[in-house]
Structures are given as C-alpha cells and as structure tokens.
Design goal:
This protein is mainly β. The chain has helices spanning 4-24, 28-34, 46-51, 178-182, 316-320, and strands at 140-145, 148-153, 185-198, 220-230, 239-250, 273-285, 288-296, 325-334, 339-346, 362-370, 376-386, 391-403, 408-421, 430-443, 448-459, 481-495, 498-511, 527-538. The longest helix is centred in the N-terminal third of the chain and has 21 residues, at 4-24.
Length: 539
C-alpha cells in the first residue's frame, strides 16, 4: 500500500500527458494558418482575436462558492465538487452548455450584430465553412483548429464593468491555446499575496488559532498554484475520462499536506512549503462519475483554493471540523437534474499512508439536492475515518445556499465532529465540537460585492482547536469553550483574472471555566480585532 498514492500520480500524469500529446499534433497548425499573410482576408485581425479567446468548458466551480466568486472561482476544467449544491447565477452572467454546431450563414447574408449579454449567446463550436469575417461579432473569438474555425466566448465585447474589464467571464489562461482547449485540457494557476495584522500586536507574531493568514503584520505569499486538468463529462450518456494534478507552494501549503506524502520531501522551510493537494483520475459513464486518487473533500463550504472563497481569512469550522484531502475512490451518481448521491472509500482524512499498520478503509459520502429554479441548494456530507493511530473520527456538514434575489445570496452551514480514542492501554477518550456559520453576499455591480460572515464554534473538550506551529502560543490547545467571529469584507474584481479582498474581523472566546487558557495575543486575551487584505492574480 506504500506506493498506492504514487501509482495514482502516475496514472493521472500519464493520461494528461497522452491528451497533451494528442493536442500537440495540432499545436503549430492553428498559428501557421491564423498568422499566415492574407489569411481570413484583410477585414479582421485573427491574431488579436485568438489572444482574446476564452475556454468554454465548465470550471471547478466550488459548490460552496459565494456570490461574487462565481465569476472567478473557475479553478480548472475539473467537474464540480460532487456534493456541492449549485450556485445559481443571474442570467446575464450564466454559463452555457455546448450545443450542436450552428450552420454557416449564407454567403450573401449580412453579418449579424453581436448577441446581447442578457440573451443566451450562440454556443461555441465549429462552422463548416471558413468565413471571411467573424459572423458572431466581437464577443466571440475564433481560430483555425483542424478542419475549420473554432469559436470561443471573448472578453473583447463585454462592457459589464466598462473599460475596467469583464468580471463575468472566465480568467484568461497564460498557457491556453485552441488546440488544448479543443481537447478539453486546461493548464493554469494563480498567485495569492496578502497581509493581515492584529490590533493587539501579539508578541509571538501569530493571530492565535486563526489559520491560513495566521501571521501578524507579515506579508505572506499564501499560494502559488499550478494545475493541469481535463473534465470528465459524458453529458449523462456514454463514456468520457479526465483528471487533475495540482501543485501548491506558499504559506498555505502547511494546511493542505497529507500525512505520509509531502513530509518525506524533507523541506527545511518553516512557513513556505510545497504540497501536492490533488492528483486524481476520473471516469464518467452515463450518469456515474468515478474518481480515483488524491482529492479535496466534499464537506463544508469554504475551500483551500483562494479564488473559491469570498474572504481572505477562514472560519474555525473549515480548519478544525472538516478534512482537507482524501486518498481513495469516490463514486457520484446523478440521479436526476436535482439529486446527486456520492459514496466512496479512502485511507483517512488528510492521510496518504496508513499510520498504524491496520490498513483501515474509511467512508466518505453525501447527498445533494437543488430546486428546479436553482435558487435553493442543500448538501449533506459525511466522513467516518481513522484519524491517526487507533483514533476514530466522524464528521458531517450541512450546507444550504439560498439566492434571495439576483444580487443577494444567503448561506447556512452546520458542522459536527467527534473523536474517540481506541488505545487499549489508556482510558477511552471522547471529544466533540460543533458550530454554525452564516454568510450573506451582495453584488453591487459586476466588479464590486460585499460579504458578511458570522460564526459560532464550540470546542466542547478543548481538543480540536490547536494551532499547527509550535511557535504559536495557541498550539498548546486546551481551549474548552466557544469561539465567535464576525467578518466583513469587500471584493473588487476589475477583471476575471484579478481580485482584491480587504476585510476586518472580530474574534471572541468564551471559556468553559477560569482555568482554560486564553487563545489570543500570545495567551493574554480572549478577544482579537484584526484586519487585512490579499490579491489574487490568475494566469
């Protein structure tokens, strides 16, 4: 079983390489044809149109992505997280499915005007004849691929944000090319930089048990993320395959590492580390999708990937009541357009290799439902596993998303986790924690949005809330009591590739008794006010 994970890596890398090699056969042909003198006549500039081309495949829209991240939570061409309720969006920025190719316009027909943003645009696809001009208008880019022109949604005709940009479109990928897009392969990433501080100026330079952006008054490169992905989408009929590989470097990598995987790399850095959070292979057969490998959990609302979240900081439940990764197999069955069921086996939460020699198989599954008008979604996820040697952990999450209006969205989340020690040489130990998160998001316009997060998290036995760095006073744990947090933030997205997220946050801790240590200001306070902002640049 020691080489199980590396076998998954090899499978995923081999299949992605095979797809890339197939696409490579056509790599230079489009450029030679598009850039050839006189190609497509003198009435348009194919090279500039090609640069503006955008992918049309559905992205990795986190099922739990809030209102504004809809426009920028496209994290690659991987299927949606199985258990996530869909995130309904207004019609003017709704994505569309690929339909059969439209017939070419007659030679003597006038060039149609660009489609309006509020209407469903023509689907991207091939036209059988080579037009002398782009018949779909400036909102559509095109390039020669194979036996004819291929059309893509373009940002050049979008005026949603005026001259500032086009936040309703997908990010433009630096590594994008029509031949890769034609074969469903997407390669990209993002850079996430930020800084935050606590008003109390803690002596240990940590913001207590607040994780991810945990350092006080210190600039952090949280994520330098690269991915390569192909979506497995059978459309409900037939067969398709896909996969994904993610590589993360930065201060967030400490929280996304799995026991028995990255630790063998022997990294000497304290804060800046390397992680391989996902590498998996997907098989889609009719309404079934089978995932094999190392992948993110289906529990919870917030995600590890920065572009999938509205706020820079994270909730306590995300860090202390939910797993991050699993290594194993997950099967998802789309019972209908409204219901989806998932179930699978894995090695343990955030565990790549067996740690106690028992080779325990653990369960991961859930159920999700979406209303017919796609304004209400409910998802339940359950994980029952071995969490370290001879320790059982069971956790679940319930997430409800409700779009109150086209601009206003509400999210409710409940988490519960319990842990039981099975050590035969010591008394049986039991611990539990639970909490409620509530989110409210409002879209002022396509570039600006505001958000509110209110959280209450109860660590009943002082067992779960423990900071990961030994230099952090909060790493001593023992915080039996209730954590409350209020976060206010704004998102500014001048384009689909750039997002700025300033926020302010208040944290309070109510101890169960006077003997419980204080979690903030290096152990001196039970409350904390912090502020910060980060920048996300996708490429």
């Amino acid at each position: 079983m020691r080489f199980l994970g590396w076998t998954f890596v090899g499978i995923a890398a081999t299949l992605l390489a095979a797809g890339a090699a197939r696409a490579g056969e056509e790599y230079f042909a489009p450029w030679q044809q598009v850039l050839a003198p006189g190609h497509q006549g003198e009435t348009t500039n194919p090279a500039s149109t090609l640069a503006a081309a955008q992918p049309d495949r559905p992205a990795n829209e986190s099922v739990f992505a809030p209102l504004r991240p809809i426009a920028r939570s496209h994290l690659g061409a991987t299927p949606s997280v199985p258990m996530a309720p869909p995130n309904p969006v207004p019609e003017e920025i709704a994505e569309f499915d690929v339909e059969p190719a439209r017939p070419a316009p007659a030679a003597d027909a006038a060039t149609p005007s660009p489609p309006e943003r509020t209407a469903t645009p023509p689907p991207p696809g091939r036209l059988p004849d080579e037009p002398s001009v782009n018949p779909l208008g400036s909102e559509w880019g095109w390039a020669e691929v194979g036996d004819g022109p291929f059309y893509y949604p373009s940002c050049s005709g979008c005026a949603a944000c005026g001259p500032a940009g086009c936040s309703g479109e997908r990010p433009q990928r630096f590594f994008d090319h029509p031949s890769l897009h034609h074969h469903g392969i997407e390669v990209g990433g993002w850079l996430n930089l930020g800084i935050s501080a606590a008003a109390s100026n803690p002596a240990d330079r940590f913001k207590g048990p607040v994780t991810f952006n945990d350092r006080h008054a210190e600039a952090q490169m949280n994520q330098l993320w690269l991915f390569a992905a192909r979506e497995a989408d059978s459309g409900g009929y037939g067969f398709d395959w896909g996969g994904r590989v993610d590589l993360l470097y930065g201060t967030d990598a400490r929280f996304a590492r799995a026991a028995g995987l990255e630790e063998r790399w022997g990294e000497p850095e304290r804060f800046y580390q390397l992680a391989l959070p996902q590498f998996y292979f997907d098989v889609a057969l009719n309404r079934w999708t089978f995932r094999f490998g190392h992948f993110f959990t289906i529990l919870g609302y917030e995600r590890v990937e920065a572009p999938a979240n509205f706020f820079y900081s994270h909730a306590y439940a995300h860090q202390y009541a939910e797993p991050f990764t699993h290594t194993g197999m997950l099967a998802t069955w789309d019972l209908s357009d409204q219901w989806s069921l998932s179930a699978g086996m894995h090695r343990g939460a955030d565990q790549f290799e067996d740690l106690d020699g028992l080779d325990a198989l653990n369960f991961l599954g859930g159920l999700s439902w979406t209303s017919r008008n796609e304004r209400l979604g409910v998802a339940f996820g359950l994980n029952a596993d071995e969490f370290g040697p001879r320790t059982n952990r069971t956790q679940y999450s319930l997430v409800t998303t409700l779009r109150l209006t086209d601009r206003l969205q509400y999210v409710f989340q409940h988490d519960y986790v319990q842990e039981t020690d099975r050590n035969e040489n010591a008394p049986r130990r039991f611990a539990e924690a639970y909490g409620i998160n509530q989110y409210l998001f409002y879209e002022f316009n396509p570039c600006w949005s505001g958000g509110l997060r209110v959280e209450w998290f109860r660590d009943q036995n002082g067992h779960f809330v423990v900071a990961d760095d030994p230099g952090n006073v909060a790493s001593q744990g023992g915080f039996a009591g209730s954590f409350s947090a209020l976060t206010l933030g704004v998102n500014w997205e001048p384009s689909a590739n750039v997002a700025l997220r300033p926020e302010v946050r208040w944290d309070w801790f109510a101890a169960s008794n006077e003997a419980v240590p204080r979690p903030f200001d290096a152990g001196n306070r039970n409350n904390q006010f912090s502020y910060g902002f980060d920048l996300i640049v996708q490429f």
